[in-house]
Amino acid sequence: MDNNQKNQMVCFEQIKYSHQANNKKTFKLGPFSLNIEQGELLAILGPSGSGKTTLLRLIAGLAYPNEGVITVDQKIVFDRHTLISPENRQVGMMFQDHALFPHLSVRKNILFGIHKWPKDKQKKRLEELMSLLELEGYLGRYPHELSGGQQQRVALARTLAQNPKVVLLDEPLSNIDADLRMSLAQELRDVLKKTKTTSVWVTHDQTEALDLSDRILVINEGRVEQLDKPWNIYNEPKTRFVADFVGTAVFINGELKDNHIITEIGSIQCPPCLKNSKHLDLMLRPDDIRVTLDETGMGTICKHQFWGSVQLYSVKLPSGQQLLTTQPSHTTWPIGKKVSIVLEPKTVIAFPV
């Protein structure tokens, strides 16, 4: 076994999964292969119904593929001849609603999965988790007596109690107030990294995924669109779907001439990989264009949104196409004002039409 295999905590090999829903429509996931490394935090992004939670269920053993092989810590947990039950996979799962037992105290919730351990081992593990998650003073309380953030820490403590090889998190912060979400997310990440726990995190919050994960898996309609580092997912999307889904972007029509993409607002050198395509859609993030007030400019301010630290302006071109640009929050440009536009993309991303 080489070092790469030793570092693989979860491995999917040519996984295919299908399921017929109540409306008789068949959902399909795969075929795809995926390796998750020891200690890695992998975030999964995708639209509702794309297969994010299904992927977690396949790892946990709550759903089974039609084809393929799944290994956890180099042990086969699913193939044509093997089916390891969820409780024997050394995989913990933290649900969206935390799923704490309301009639049990914090202490009993945490110890629930290890209540058959010797008492001295239970006590030692409880003390470790209390210190790790700052739960001293809460052991006698019940879930309804805790804040959302405290409930989250208790749920994580219960998940970590059995020392799982992998922790699966299904939108663990969706019920937390927005002003606390990012700090709690960072706290969760710190704990998982401190314990060197491999984790797979499903979220709808793109900022959360970009900020916290080591890599992001983007899926759509059961297909893997891209698996990459957060910076690459945002700045170098491999498919039109990823470019459109992750972050804010618009696409402007372009035509390839003399190794340049010619657009309504200017030209830019074309990447070598696209030089066989005549018509292209150029992706532009709000910070890929420089916009200034100019009565002779070709663009017209047609809409704006106040985002707190920045203003997002929509700029209408003569063709009717609209671009987006961000400006400092104190910038106030009236609707109808003319602006000039200069292309300044950090990376040239375009897709054949």
Automatic annotation (TrEMBL):
One of its GO terms (molecular function) is ATP hydrolysis activity. Pfam families: ABC_tran, TOBE_2. GO terms for biological process: cell division. GO terms for cellular component: ATP-binding cassette (ABC) transporter complex. CDD domains: ABC_Carb_Solutes_like (cd03259). PROSITE patterns: ABC_TRANSPORTER_1, ABC_TRANSPORTER_2. Residues 10-246 form the ABC transporter domain. The keyword Iron applies. Transmembrane segments: none annotated. Keywords: ATP-binding, Cell cycle, Cell division, Cell membrane, Ion transport, Iron, Iron transport, Membrane, Nucleotide-binding, Transport. This is Cell division transporter, ATP-binding protein FtsE (TC 3.A.5.1.1). The lineage of its organism: unclassified sequences, metagenomes, ecological metagenomes.
